[in-house]
Specification:
The chain is α/β, with parallel strands linked by helices. About 15% of the residues lie in helices and about 25% in strands.
């Protein structure tokens, strides 16, 4: 149950040792908790800070073209998270006041989530963030 007045949301999920070190089946969720931002409409209007560790960030909208707007989100920190570049860009676009973005140990996946993306394979991350004043890529 979400409160309609949530301003700070901090999530840390513990991924099992077996999944973290390759013992889960390929293509499985691998013990990763999925953060579906489309399920936050009651808190979206007041959310200022979002910190998420060890999660898979999915769906900003409901899948039917209706998106969530995060008008007050100023800070987002993703650590050891899995996200597609498209989903990350949609979160940034939905948050016009997002000034601080921290990406630490992110696993980027294809937009359909079927495979991981690697710099060695030619993957380049391009993000637009007109309000960003602080960006950390670790």
């Amino acid at each position: 149950m979400w409160s309609a007045r949530v301003e700070e949301l901090r999530i840390r999920c513990d991924v099992s040792w077996f999944c973290r070190y390759g013992s889960c089946e390929s293509g499985s969720s691998g013990g990763t908790w999925r953060l579906q931002l489309g399920s936050l409409p009651c808190a979206a209007a007041t959310l200022r800070v979002l910190h998420a560790n060890d999660v898979g960030v999915e769906r900003l909208g409901d899948g039917g073209g209706v998106g969530v707007v995060l008008p007050l989100l100023e800070e987002m920190r993703l650590v050891e998270a899995t996200v597609s570049p498209d989903t990350l860009q949609r979160v940034i676009d939905a948050a016009p006041r997002l000034a601080n973005l921290w990406l630490d140990g992110i696993i980027f996946t294809s937009n359909d989530g079927s495979r991981r993306l690697y710099l060695a394979d030619g993957f380049r991350l391009q993000l637009r963030g007109p309000a960003l004043t602080e960006l950390a890529l670790i």
